[in-house]
Automatic annotation (TrEMBL):
This is DUF2188 domain-containing protein.
Length: 94
């Protein structure tokens, strides 16, 4: 073999860099649940998602669903007003 690293060692290092970066990007995502106005109703949406998790006729029902998800994932519930502003935040994190 030539001086320096073997091709196997180089390949292992490339995989380590790839998987470490992949792991870091997953950690940056949160499970915070937003209760937002949606099409004449209310919806629960995970922070960062465009798609909604669930749709509800009443805000109280959406809040109940968001709370159960937030408790499961130890995250927060962010409740929005009809105008879109934040009304309240409930934390279930550690």
């Amino acid at each position: 073999m030539a001086k320096g690293k073997s091709w196997l060692r180089t390949l292992i290092e490339v995989f380590e860099v790839f998987f470490n970066d992949l792991h870091k990007s997953k950690r940056g995502r949160t499970w915070h649940q937003h209760v937002v106005p949606y099409e004449e109703a209310w919806a629960v949406r995970r922070e960062g998602n465009q798609r909604i998790t669930s749709k509800h006729r009443k805000q109280s029902t959406a809040i109940r669903k968001a709370k159960s998800l937030a408790k499961k994932y130890k995250s927060d519930v962010i409740i929005h007003r009809e105008s879109g502003g934040i009304r309240d935040r409930i934390s279930y994190g550690e």
